[in-house]
Amino acid sequence: MSAAISSLVSYGSDSDPENDSESNKSTEKEDQTHPDATAHLQPLESGHTMSLALLNAAPEVPVKEAVMTGSYLDPSLKEVAFNPTYETMFSPEFGPTNPFNNQQMAAARNMLSGYAEPAHLNDFMFEQQRRTFSTFGYALDPSVDSNQISSSSFIGAVDEAEKNKGLTVFDSGHKKPDKRKKIKGGDAEEIDNFLGPWAKYVDEKSVAKPTEEEKKELDEITAKRQKRGKIQDEAPGEEKTILHIKDMYDYQGRSYLHIPQDVGVSLRSSDAPDKCYLPKKQLHVWSGHTKGVSGIRLFPKSGHLLLSCSMDCKIKLWEVYKERRCIRTFIGHSKAVRDICFNNTGSQFLSAAYDRYLKLWDSETGKCISHFTNRKVPYCVKFNPDEDKQNLFVAGMSDKKIVQWDIRTGEVVQEYDRHLGAVNTITFVDENRRFVSTSDDKSLRVWEWDIPVDFKYIAEPSMHSMPAVTLSPNSKWLACQSMDNQILIFGAQNRFRLNKKKIFKGHMVAGYACQVDFSPDMSYVVSGDADGKLNIWDWKTTKLYHRIKAHDKVCISALWHPHETSKVITCGWDGQIKLWD
């Protein structure tokens, strides 16, 4: 080894120059053929001798075929100056090819056991054959054509396949065996009548049984539960009316709907008091309802009549001036009346009750004109205030929808279905082009009329449900009774933003939809509360000015008369309606 190295190192000093030139030419040719193959054999240009440190004792040896063809490609190269063939690029880096590499090893594999070809198989067919195999022990061979099925087309229990004629689990109608039959005790019928493991130790005489009276009570309870569970196709209750005054018409032939001129106050819609004052004493009590009063409404524009609805299923019409009598009672609902609403002239009004019916009444004759239902409980009802749309009304339902009916046809003409909870209030704003709705989903939505998509959605994490909303006399603000014992004020124009400077506190209303109202001159805000008190706040400072004990139970509504300086009407769950001045 050392002799070979020394002979390689000490060449050229005593040699012939001609021989040196020829040898140099030959080396240049070899360099041109393949520079990388003989790079380690070239001498340094500076002298005729080279040191041992520059010699690579273990050079990279190319494949024999690559050396012969001159097609070897160094894998460490970053750039290739020619177009190599596929064989050149994917040939082994060093050394000869693997002599033990057979065809099976060289084949492509996409799984441990070999190469699985992709094949389309319907999911249902696969599941059908899998279940058949797990149940009967045979399945159809997937490699066999489905049009040429014979006894040899099955794998597994072929005898069972012939016996069942190749039927699958779904074709044979095979059912899993009843596990109950395997239980010790015999048939399933016996197990259905199984009274428990301790039944044989119990003496029948010692078992407590309900008496006949208790059995009747239990039967009544179960019957009521069955009624609740089923949506009954109940017919609307029989409508009737009772007139409580002697003469329906006066000496001039005018009915009680006629606006009186001799009450000492102008009752024209344009006349409103310039300055309002705090009410301090009780003036009158209207009593006639046997259960709690759920809502009151004044006659449109004039306010000379008062309409009330109650949990005793009745609606009553009262005089506000003169003798303050009960004029008429409207009977027709089978359950508590939730809401009422006059039309623009006051000649008709709508009532919504828990019997799932909305009814249209004639205010003068007391006749029920028509009834509407969609088999859901209506929580609020409102006529469209536009003069040309008095035949249309909307109702907020318990099934999260706002439904629009046409009185003339009695059909639903539009549905506003965006809320996530029962709809509690509907309030028209912006010259009746829009309306605002609140719901149990703790949100406030603003809608364009007849467009079933809300264009404004107000919901904050801190917001609570707002079951009572009132529009201010100047139509600029919405007063919303919030369930966190606050009255919130939203702008009723354009942006509907919360006015954070106007928040009225100091009363307790959580759980009750106590109606809010404004004084006609926008000086005061009034509301009832859960303790039966009438609360009065100053609009500018939001301070609680006055508090009156109005009712023994919840004071559910408070109305400030639009033509009076200090007259407020309240109603409560004690069944009374009171006038304060």
From TrEMBL:
GO molecular function annotations of the record: mRNA binding
Gene Ontology terms: cellular component: catalytic step 2 spliceosome
Keywords assigned by UniProt, alphabetized: mRNA processing, mRNA splicing, Nucleus, Repeat, Spliceosome, WD repeat
Chain positions covered by the region annotation Disordered: 1-39, 209-233
Main subcellular location of this protein, as a coarse class: nucleus
One Pfam family matching this protein: WD40
Name listed for the protein in its UniProt record: Pre-mRNA-processing factor 17
Organism (species): Takifugu flavidus (sansaifugu)
